[in-house]
Amino acid sequence: MRVTALCLVFFLPLAAADQGFQVSGTVVDHLTNQPLNHVLVNLLRSSKEGGSVSVLTESDGHFLFTAVPAGRYRLTAQRRGETPQGFHSDSNGYATALIVGPGLPTENLMFPLKANASINGLVVDDQGEPVSGAQVQLFMQSVINGELQTIQSRGMNTNAAGEFHIGRLRPATYFLSAYGRPWYANFVARQPGVTNKEIDVVYPVTWYGNTTNGESASPIVLTEGSSLNIQIALHAVPGIHVEIPTTHSNPQLSVAGINLSVRGPGGVRVPIFGMFSFLNDAKVQVLSGIAAGRYEISIPPDGADRMNTSKSETLDLVDGMTVPAPAPSHLSVSGQITFAGGSRPEEDLEVFLQHTRNTAMAEVSEDGTFSFPADQLTAGSYEVRLNTRDLIIESMTVKGGKRLGEKIELPGSGSVTLSLVVATADHLSELKGYAIRNDSAFPGATLLLLPQDAGESRLIRRDQSDSDGSFTIRGVLPGKYTLVAIEDGSNLLYKTPGVMKPYLAGGVAITVPLATADPLKVPVQALLPN
């Protein structure tokens, strides 16, 4: 007997059994190819009509949708207690859309479902006793948008038994840290005058692999469906007390603007939470509950009201030292936007300078000029962004600073001027076509549009071919490109110089705007070994 639909919140034609098409298939385990029972399968229409319908798979993994109107759909499957996965999805959010219509393959689909992984952990102290309330943080290393990146994944505290569980993890490489304070030291951390060094102790940030050096952390490699049991031992060290002059008329706001972190694998920032108390009628704040070591500390400048105006520097903190208040900023950044291919859009426009620690924002005036408040920026590397995806930065020049690929490098002081040429929608192109292998449409291929200048990685565009082999690449600036299709390029480091060179000969060279409206046909190449 077929399982009936759980949810019939769909468009009206679905109710008529003699209309539309069938969508059917089998959900199988990605590794074993065994059918999966009781999996929730959802079909969502990708258009303004909207609507979705869901069914549960049978014991043989089969699912069936009837009376489905022609259109483009998102097909997902979900085990109980796990996150939904798109049809042939990857870690960057791309999936193969299902195109329903006459003569299109929408029946007897094979939906391989990947199993999530998990970590079960125990944090213990010097005596092997469990540490309750330890701060555990998990970081994932993966290929994200063509680059190898390490990002924060989860954070939690251990329970009374020193245990923690992290589930719903996709296969990848992870790093894990833990830190905290012994239970008896929590009171001491709040008392700046306490001198009992025997109990004024803390647990420094410790990485899996029993190291306090983030660059020496042991990787945790999780495969599909794996469940790993790990243990981290924390060793108590003397706590320190560091004085920081208050920089705000309201001391609580001064504390709220202070951020403390250490560096981990791949340069990832690990936020640390210390304890604050006040001395001398709230003119001096004392940071405690942390170990001596190298930290990146952000302190808001004197009188600053915004949290994102903190000035950051790297310091070696030791007991009894006083952290100097940040000096006023002597850096000014302003600029001009020129619109290519059209006039300025009516919507409000803002320019963002995004740093790993903070984001500064400037409103764009009617004449295209903008200026960042003087207290928002410090020296460092920033990515330039706009507040809308409908506009794309076509070119950028920097005076008083340096341009480093997609980013700009700001000095510690002086005047910096940005000149941005921004392409409006009528200056951008949309590319449509099909991924082809052996004269047949190829679903699930990775499409990469590569600019002739390999150094302009910001111009790279990406898509994944749908069930009929079709693809659409939007927001393409005028210029010369090579369009390549790769069988499974989801984890390809395509922004790394030289990686895409072997694929160029098998791609299609194009000049945008295209001279014809005919759909492009791109041959699908096999993924080359590393």
Report on this model:
It contains three helices and 40 strands. It has 530 residues and is an all-beta fold. It has four domains: 12-113, Sandwich (Immunoglobulin-like); 116-328, Carboxypeptidase-like, regulatory domain (Immunoglobulin-like); 330-426, Immunoglobulin-like (Sandwich), CATH 2.60.40.1120; 428-525, Sandwich (Immunoglobulin-like), CATH 2.60.40. Strands 10, 11, 13, 14, 15, 17, 20 and 21 form an eight-stranded antiparallel beta sheet that branches.
**Rounded mean pLDDT score:** 87
Oligomer: single chain
Helix content: under 10%
Output the radius of gyration.
28 Å
CATH class of the largest domain: Mainly Beta
Q: How many distinct helices?
A: 3
- Overall shape: globular
CATH topology annotation of the largest domain = Immunoglobulin-like
**What is the terminal-to-terminal distance?**
48 Å
Number of strands: 40
Summing up helix and strand content along with how strands pair, one would put the structural category as mainly beta
Main pleated sheet:
8 strands, antiparallel
**Number of individual domains:** 4
Unreliable stretches? 1-18, 303-308
Please summarize what this structure is:
With 530 residues, this protein is mostly beta strands. The protein has four domains: 12-113, Immunoglobulin-like; 116-328, Sandwich (Immunoglobulin-like); 330-426, Carboxypeptidase-like, regulatory domain (Immunoglobulin-like); 428-525, Sandwich (Immunoglobulin-like). The two termini are 48 Å apart.
SSE blueprint:
Layout: E1 21-29, E2 40-45, E3 52-56, E4 62-68, E5 71-78, E6 85-86, E7 98-100, E8 109-113, E9 117-124, E10 135-144, E11 147-157, E12 163-169, E13 172-180, H1 186-189, E14 201-207, E15 220-222, E16 227-233, E17 237-245, H2 251-256, E18 259-263, E19 269-272, E20 275-279, E21 284-291, E22 293-299, E23 311-317, E24 330-340, E25 350-354, E26 359-363, E27 369-372, E28 380-386, E29 392-399, E30 402-404, E31 407-410, E32 413-423, E33 429-437, E34 440-441, E35 446-451, E36 461-464, E37 470-476, E38 479-486, H3 501-504, E39 508-512, E40 520-525
Parallel strand pairs: 1-8, 9-16, 24-32, 33-40, 38-40
Antiparallel strand pairs: 1-4, 2-3, 2-5, 5-6, 5-7, 9-12, 10-11, 10-13, 13-14, 13-15, 14-17, 17-21, 18-19, 18-22, 20-21, 22-23, 24-27, 25-26, 25-28, 28-31, 29-32, 30-31, 33-34, 33-37, 35-36, 35-38, 38-39
